[in-house]
Amino acid sequence: MPQIARLCGLGSYPPKFKNYIAMLVMTSLTRRFLLLLLVAFALLPVPSFAISVMDPFNLPASMDGGTVKVGDGVAYADGSRHKLDVYAPEARGVAAPVVFFIYGGGWNRGQRSDYQFVGRALAARGFVVVIADYRLVPEVRYPQFLEDSARALGWVQDNIAQYGGDPNRLFLAGHSAGAYNAVMLSLDPSFLREYGVTMPILGVAALSGPYDFYPFEYGEVREAFGNAPNPEGTQPINLVTSDSPPMYLATGTTDPIVRMQNTERFAQKLKSNGVWVTTRYYEGFGHMEPVIAMGSLWRWRMPVLDDMVAFFQMFGAFPSGVPYVAVVPNAPEQLPEAIAPMDQIVQQMNAMFQPIEQ
Fold it and tell me: Are the C-beta atoms of 73 and 83 separated by less than 8 Å?
């Protein structure tokens, strides 16, 4: 039993949990069904220890292989929230394109370790991926969380070549509040200029992001932006110019946090300024689903990773035409019973957020 638990990456979990999962492995349940059982277990009340709602997506068995974490907790500035992780393909040769991914969380929560599955998913497609923590509300307000990401990009510019990345092939990506941050860094040059960042941004991939949400109607948004001296200047839709980089905008059609119309308005503003925009509207999905579908555990539900990488390739990720692998797993076995726990955990994730705009 202990050996099985270690292989499953469960070393830090309580003995009862490890023994339960090890028993399931020894009874030869399928890999996908095992992972869905882990999700179901994560939903159970377990008072003796804390378990992140994102844990099932970050278990070793549920992440893409062929990748390596080449930077772990690297400091890009002083402070506990100024650290980053770097993921890369296991087999590295020539310098790889770089994706700087910014996670969301309403600007008041989130940590880089929750998004290992995103780093490994993109690394498995040939990218060097950087995921950086940034300071959160209430410690900071707008624009300081953007300044942190800009500072982290300064580290990328100076150091990413040592990790196998090409700083001249940089893409930004993000989800929810992180999508806002990524888009803002690409639209307002003052943030990058402050930290001497001159790398070209070849494209931005934004999932479930808010781009047009003033006036500030809800508590989380007022907390983050309410003291901005120029609130209209915080809105990406007001900063679009013909020099804006190409963008990939994706959202679920039933997102209750940032409604689909927000993406539609922003996409139209980009098009009217002659900026390339690729839009994807994933039918019947909500706020968290697009980002968790980047991981191998849920990738079969929608082609968000494939769509994102195809967009990056369109704008120079692999100029020599190096192919990437886009894996779409089959649906889990025993679908009607097995899918229920996953739907519950997604509902739990979506319930963590307040609406950002009406």
Answer: yes
Residues 263 and 294: their CA atoms lie apart, in Å, by 19
Mean predicted confidence (pLDDT) in 122-143: 97
Q: Which CATH architecture has domain 57-330?
A: 3-Layer(aba) Sandwich (3.40)
Domain ranges in the chain?
1-51, 57-330
Q: What is the pLDDT of residues 290-326, one digit of tens each?
A: 999 999 988 999 999 999 999 999 999 998 876 555 4
* Strands of the 247-252 sheet, one edge to the other: 67-75, 83-89, 128-132, 96-102, 165-175, 201-207, 247-252, 277-282
Report strand pairing: 96-102 vs 165-175. Answer: parallel
Burial of residue 159, with CB atoms counted within 10 A of its CB: 0-12 exposed, 13-18 middle, 19 or more buried: middle
**Long-range contacts: 328-332, Cβ < 8 Å, 24+?**
328/299, 328/300, 328/303, 329/32, 329/296, 329/299, 329/300, 330/300, 331/300, 332/30, 332/32, 332/33, 332/36, 332/300
Q: Whole-angstrom Cα distance, residue 83 to residue 59? A: 22
Helix axes 304-314, 116-123, angle to 10 degrees: 50
Q: What is the Cα–Cα distance from 234 to 121, expressed in whole angstroms?
A: 31
The β-bridge partners of 69 are 87
* Token duo for residue 121: 């998913």
Residue whose tokens read 């008041």: 108
Contact 124, 68 (CB under 8 A): no
What pLDDT does residue 69 have?
97
C-alpha 152/C-alpha 82 separation (Å) is 8
Q: Comparing C-alpha atoms, which of 76, 93, 64 is closest to residue 131?
A: 76
The pLDDT value recorded for residue 93 is 81
Q: For residue 11, what are the contacts with CB-CB under 8 A and spacing of at least 6?
A: 5, 18
Mean pLDDT of 176-205: 98
* pLDDT of 179 strictly over 50: yes
> Can you state the angle between helices 15-26 and 31-42, rounded to 10 degrees?
160
Q: What are phi and psi of 353, to 5 degrees?
A: -105, 145
